[in-house]
Amino acid sequence: MNGVAVGDVVQVRPPEEILSGLDDRGERESMPFMPEMLKFAGRRFVVESISHKTCDTVNWTGIRKVENTVHLSGVRCDGSAHGGCQAGCLIFWKTDWLTRVSGTGEVEPDSVANAEVAAPAEGPAPTGCTAERLQEVAHGACRDDVTPSDGPVYSCQATELPRFVGAEIPRWNLRQYADDVQYGNASSRSVLWGILVGLFNLGQTASSKLLPRWLRVRAGVKYPFIVPSAERMAAANLGLEAGDWVRVRSAEEIGKTLDKNYRNRGLYFDREMLKYCGRTVQVLRRVDHIIEEPTGLMITMKTPSVILAGGICAADYHRSCPRAIYAYWRESWLERVPAPEPADRAIEPQAAQG
Q: What's the pTM value of the predicted model, to 2 decimals?
């Protein structure tokens, strides 16, 4: 990945350098450079993960290949140029938007005098872009696939993901798992566990279709196990706000709020969220409007949800995808608790960089 490794300290290039390398759509190799990213110019960050692959949350075509891209620790989109979208996506960074700082040093703004230049990416020569053009593109100037009859249409890295990712990486491609370990995205133990769980769940899916119920393991339910058993879908309203402390309910309690499709009033409960059951965590913010990735339209949630500090998809069961997407939580999956003593806190609050 152009000599950049997990744990390296990198510095975001000056705006003029980055803009000069973009095309008229504000993109590099079809990856958008968003207006929200300009504020990070000149600042230093630690490389959190190598984004050599990512999950497709637009067309749901599985895990896709990505080239010359990393994620930086804590650097998320604040939605300021996209209608205040509250998703808080971890930003993709092309390696030629960064310089690798020699040595460790403090992760603070500094000059680029002690930085190594990343190798330029191959491809057609860029034509350059402006900050004003980035704003136009963010507000859908290049979207001709959606009619803005239902409101403003936005364009961001999440909506344009199918344009900058490569081919689908099948589950049976063993190289991806070796890369996860080699790049430092995951430990060999977690990768092996993920492979074994994936194989088990494939068997569970097959048994649900082919075997009588009495021959299935746990009725064919995928691991980690949670059994949906909601008889009615009453909404819980705890009135949670940023800074409140909550305890995540048990898998059994949450299962009683889910329909057969593992949804509560339309919101899916992913098995990746089970690891937080029983933990005491802090509410990062309420979420009531996010950009719908396939259309670029801003959607308002009929039932607001919350994001928990540190409550991300760790992709333990999704092939170590490094996007670290925030999970959305219904208040019926949580219970309000007093602020705990520091030693009792399961996940420390994380200040959003973006």
A: 0.89
